[in-house]
Every structure is written in structure tokens, then in C-alpha cells.
């Protein structure tokens, strides 16, 4: 009896090395929850810039854009269409892998990456030709602050998309395993939605 008890104790120890598993009170996956909390923090950062923007325009009553300056609304609108299109191509890629359509996944990811890269190139080209600098006036600081902050997020998103694209060509995803592309996809959709807010606030209103 004693030997059996010792054997059972040893078997129990073999299965429980190290500290006990953390208690998970939520059914939300850690990766998804982490991305959600990260996005919430990013919304707060954008909120600080939007607060400065509305303070200048509403409280300060300053002209927007600064007198003598113009914003390329048409080009920005075209660029907006490019970025929004990338959300649809990303969705196509996600739906393709759910059906084990690897070619659709690869095509969707490559197209999404190229659209995002095109958006960033046009944004940088806009900075080169817009005619004013961040230090020229408060309006310039806010303009470059908001659009530049978004551009930084696009750059991060492109790196994530590049990793997903490379993995898609290496056969890392399947209909049963595609979480590795869904989490970066959530971030990219956030980037797209945030640009729509920036575009209508900064260029249109």
C-alpha cells in the first residue's frame, strides 16, 4: 500500500513541474486581449493629439489650415481609398485561408502589403511638397503630429504584414490554424479606421 502511494505521488510530481498555471478568469485568448488593450492605449495617444487639434480650432478659433497653406484633399482622398481597399484585401486573405485556399491567402497578403506601402509612399511625398513644416506654426505641428503618428502605425503594420506574408508562403497557416494572421489583421484594421478619422478631421472638416 505504501509503495503504491509513493508511486502515485511520483506520478503526480511528474506532471506538475514548475509553478502552477495562471488562473484565467476570462475566455478571451491572451493574444487577442493583449492586442485589444494595446489598441485602447493607442486610441488614447491619438486622443491627446485630437484634443490639441480641437483646442486650436474650437477654443483658439485659429484658421485651419494656416493662412496661405492648402491641404491636398484630393490626393489624401485617393490615398484613403487605397488604405481602405487594403482592409478588403486583408479580409479576402483571411477568408481564403479559412477555406484552405493558400493561393488566395498569398495573393491577398501581397496585395494588402503593396497597398499599404503605396499609401505610405504617397504620404511621404505629400510631406515633401506640402509647403510648410511642423515648426512654422501650431497648425503645422498638429498636422504633422497626427498624420505622422498614423504614418508610424502604418510602418509598424507593414512590418507585421510582411511577417504574415512571408509565413503564408512558407505554409504556416491553414483552416485550423490562422490565429497568427488574425491578430496582426486586427491591428491593420485599426490603422485603417483611425486614418478615416484623421482624414475627415484634418482634411475635410
TrEMBL record:
Residue ranges constituting the Heme-copper oxidase subunit III family profile domain according to the UniProt record: 33-205
GO molecular function: cytochrome-c oxidase activity
Keyword Cell membrane: yes
Primary location group: membrane
Taxonomy, superkingdom: Bacteria
Family to which this protein belongs: Belongs to the cytochrome c oxidase subunit 3 family.
Family matches, as PROSITE patterns: COX3 (PS50253)
Cell location: Cell membrane
GO biological process, one term: aerobic electron transport chain
Topology of the protein relative to the lipid bilayer: Multi-pass membrane protein
Catalytic activity from the UniProt record: 4 Fe(II)-[cytochrome c] + O2 + 8 H(+)(in) = 4 Fe(III)-[cytochrome c] + 2 H2O + 4 H(+)(out)
Key words, A-Z: Cell membrane, Membrane, Transmembrane, Transmembrane helix
A GO CC term attached to the entry: plasma membrane
The enzyme's E.C. designation: 7.1.1.9
Database matches in Pfam families: COX3
Record-given protein name: cytochrome-c oxidase
Spans traversing the lipid bilayer: 32-55, 75-93, 105-122, 142-164, 185-204
Amino acid at each position: 500500500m505504501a509503495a503504491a502511494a509513493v508511486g502515485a505521488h511520483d506520478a503526480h510530481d511528474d506532471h506538475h513541474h514548475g509553478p502552477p498555471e495562471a488562473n484565467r478568469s476570462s475566455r478571451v485568448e491572451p493574444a487577442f486581449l493583449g492586442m485589444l488593450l494595446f489598441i485602447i492605449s493607442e486610441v488614447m495617444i491619438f486622443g491627446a493629439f485630437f484634443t490639441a487639434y480641437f483646442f486650436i480650432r474650437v477654443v483658439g478659433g485659429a484658421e485651419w489650415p494656416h493662412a496661405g497653406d492648402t491641404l491636398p484633399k484630393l490626393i489624401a482622398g485617393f490615398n484613403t481609398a487605397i488604405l481602405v481597399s487594403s482592409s478588403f484585401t486583408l479580409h479576402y486573405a483571411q477568408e481564403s485561408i479559412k477555406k484552405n485556399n493558400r493561393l488566395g491567402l498569398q495573393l491577398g497578403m501581397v496585395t494588402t502589403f503593396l497597398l499599404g506601402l503605396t499609401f505610405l509612399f504617397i504620404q511621404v511625398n505629400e510631406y515633401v511638397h506640402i509647403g510648410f513644416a511642423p515648426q512654422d506654426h501650431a497648425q503645422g505641428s498638429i498636422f504633422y503630429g497626427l498624420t505622422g503618428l498614423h504614418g508610424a502605425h502604418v510602418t509598424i503594420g507593414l512590418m507585421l504584414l510582411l511577417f504574415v506574408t512571408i509565413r503564408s508562403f512558407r505554409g504556416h497557416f491553414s483552416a485550423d490554424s490562422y490565429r497568427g494572421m488574425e491578430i496582426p489583421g486586427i491591428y491593420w484594421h485599426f490603422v485603417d479606421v483611425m486614418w478615416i478619422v484623421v482624414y475627415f478631421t484634418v482634411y475635410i472638416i
